[in-house]
Each structure stands twice: as C-alpha cells, then as structure tokens.
C-alpha cells in the first residue's frame, strides 16, 4: 500500500469513527427525550458494528453496491457521501483502470489537496465519472452540437478511414504489436496487403473490424528496421526521422516539428494511434514523448476534432501486466503525456502485444469517435 493510499485510508477511518460516535450519541439523546421511540428507529446490525468492521465491509463492495448501501438508511447515506471515502477509493483503484479518456480524466492534483482547501470537491461524482465500470452508466448524454459535429464528420469520412500509427511502443517492445495484428485474423482480419513505404519508414495495412468496417492503418516508424532493431537490443533511443528538434535541445521542455513528408501524411488521415511503451522504466523521457505527440497533432496539419487512440502497450501478460516488471497505469500515462491539454478527443487503452488484449476495444472507440456507427 502506498503512503498516499495509507494516509487516505487512515483519514476515512478516523472520520467514520467520529461520525459513528456522534450519530449514536445523537440517537441516544433523542431517545431520552422521547421514551416512546419506535422500535424501527433502533440501529440495524450493520450500523451497530464497530467502525473498523464497517470499513472492511465497504472495502469489498463495488461502487454500484456501495451506492445501493447508501440508499438503505440515513446512517449509510451519510457514510457513503463522505468525500474521504471516495478519495480513498480513487487512490486505491485508479492505477487498476484499463482505460481513461478525455471525458473521464480526473484532476490528479485534487487527490493531494486537503479537503479544507477544496471543500466543494465531489470525489464520489468524480469516481463514478472516471471508473471504466461506471463510466457509461453515469456519462451525460452528448450535447446536440457534439452530435451534429459527429454527423458532419461521418459525411466527410472516406469509405475506408485512415489512421496514422506511431510511437515508441512500436519499436522498443520485445513483441511487435503490428506483427501480431497482421497474424490475428480471428480478431482483425487483414483486408489489404502492405502498401509502399514512405521514405523507407512506413507502410499501410487495411483491416476489417467486426466483419463490417474496413479501415487502414498507416504505420510510421522512426527509422529503418536495422536501426530500430539495433536500438532495441541496446536499449537505446533510435534517431527519429519523423521529428526535428527545435533549438539546441538543452532545455527541459523540448520542442519538435515534424518532417515535411510526415506533414503530408498528417493532412491525409482521419485519426491517430499513438503506441506508448508502458513497461516501467523503458518508456523514455515523458517530456520528449509529450512534445513529439503535440507536434504530430498540431492544428496546422488538420482538424483538432480527429480522435487520438493511445495504446498503453506491454509485450506480454505477467506480474503487473508485463513479463518482466510492472505496467505504467493508463491514468498516469495520460498525465505524463499531458493529454488533458489536447483539443482532440482521446482515450488511453491498456494493451498487450502478444494477445492483442485491449486493441479491439481501442479500435472500436477510434472508429466510433471518427463518426462510424460501431
């Protein structure tokens, strides 16, 4: 258990004990004033349990069951509405979530802000909005202007939408995501053979989603296959032909532009797939990844309404999600890439190269965000 999680748990336990003592003290005081108090007002079995036992019971409940518990009586309604409880749940669960998107990304800095400085923070609503299991149920209906924009975007789509795939997760992982995708017809049948390369660093492949929607992925690698393999074996960053660093490169906040041939590709695609290396300790400097992603999504190269799918990728299943170590949680990856500042709609999806776990869900979101009915 992390220090932050332990602190939030201790804070809620203390709050629960104080509330419980005060609640029953007030009930006894009211009973002394009204000796004819009905038996129905007597505390139930769960309310009579010690605060530590109550906390342990709540720790096993899912958010939906916790909300149902809050609807049983005044005591549990007050307990379940305690913001300290939901802040504890937030810190405990957020690193386990398999996806996060532009509509559900929480303000992580609020988790470290004492409630006395931000008394209006509703962690219950924030949790239910962010948790993947609750997201669809609690998400508000799309605004009318959003529906109109999606409809107009669907009219402009080509019969076969095109997506640009790039990122360090394509090159640094032991298991190649793209190779597995091309050899998995049970998940994503290949509908077209690889097309010509672009300046030797990219190619396009067509797939079929759910035997219904045909789409094309244009893959851009940072360099040729020989240089990529050498850098992977030596665990070094390969020199990228996709990006040009501005200035002398000595600043803490690097700035990049994209090569001219990449600009033409960006103008021609309907969305983006960024493959991040989520294996802990191998993702490189987050400042560089953030700057390169922003350079690729610059509004100069096309509409900011084009969706961005971030595949938080590891090679294979294993302890913590990887074969050799732990996985960077998708919510932390979104924070590192500063995705909240993007104008584009985006989602981060946990992915495993070897099994393609999460890939189909991510592609489904990407096609839907591009205006297709999936």
TrEMBL record:
GO terms for cellular component: SCF ubiquitin ligase complex. Residues 43-89 form the F-box domain. One of its GO terms (biological process) is protein polyubiquitination. Gene3D superfamilies: 1.20.1280.50, P-loop containing nucleotide triphosphate hydrolases (3.40.50.300). It holds the Pfam family F-box-like. This is F-box domain-containing protein. It comes from Aldrovandia affinis.
């Amino acid at each position: 258990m992390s220090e932050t999680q332990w602190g939030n748990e201790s804070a809620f336990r203390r709050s629960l004990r104080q509330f419980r003592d005060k609640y029953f003290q007030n009930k006894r005081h009211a009973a002394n004033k009204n000796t004819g108090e009905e038996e129905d007002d007597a505390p139930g079995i769960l309310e009579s349990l010690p605060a530590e036992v109550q906390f342990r019971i709540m720790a096993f409940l899912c958010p939906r069951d916790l909300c149902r518990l809050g609807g049983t009586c005044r005591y549990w309604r007050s307990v379940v509405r305690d913001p300290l409880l939901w802040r504890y749940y937030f810190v405990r669960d957020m690193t386990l979530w398999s996806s996060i998107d532009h509509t559900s990304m929480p303000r992580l800095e609020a988790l470290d802000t004492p409630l006395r400085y931000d008394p209006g923070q509703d962690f219950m609503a924030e949790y239910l909005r962010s948790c993947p299991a609750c997201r669809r149920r609690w998400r508000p209906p799309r605004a009318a202007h959003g529906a109109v924009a999606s409809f107009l975007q669907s009219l402009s789509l080509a019969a076969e939408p095109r997506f640009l795939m790039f990122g360090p997760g394509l090159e640094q992982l032991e298991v190649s995501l793209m190779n597995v995708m091309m050899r998995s017809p049970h998940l994503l049948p290949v509908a077209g053979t690889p097309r010509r390369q672009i300046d030797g660093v990219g190619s396009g492949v067509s797939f079929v989603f759910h035997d219904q929607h045909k789409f094309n992925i244009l893959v851009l690698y940072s360099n040729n296959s020989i240089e990529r393999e050498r850098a992977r074996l030596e665990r070094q960053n390969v020199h990228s032909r996709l990006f040009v660093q501005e200035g002398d490169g000595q600043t803490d906040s690097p700035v990049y532009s994209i090569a001219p041939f990449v600009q033409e590709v960006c103008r021609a695609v309907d969305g983006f797939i960024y493959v991040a290396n989520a294996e802990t300790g191998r993702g490189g400097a987050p400042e560089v990844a953030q700057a390169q992603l922003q350079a690729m999504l610059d509004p100069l190269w096309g509409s900011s309404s084009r969706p961005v799918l971030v595949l938080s990728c590891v090679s294979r299943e294993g302890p913590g999600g990887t074969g050799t170590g732990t996985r960077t949680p998708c919510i932390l990856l979104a924070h590192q890439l500063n995705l909240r500042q993007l104008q584009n709609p985006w989602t981060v999806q946990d992915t495993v190269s070897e099994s393609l776990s999460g890939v189909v869900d991510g592609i489904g979101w990407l096609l839907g965000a591009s205006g297709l009915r999936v």
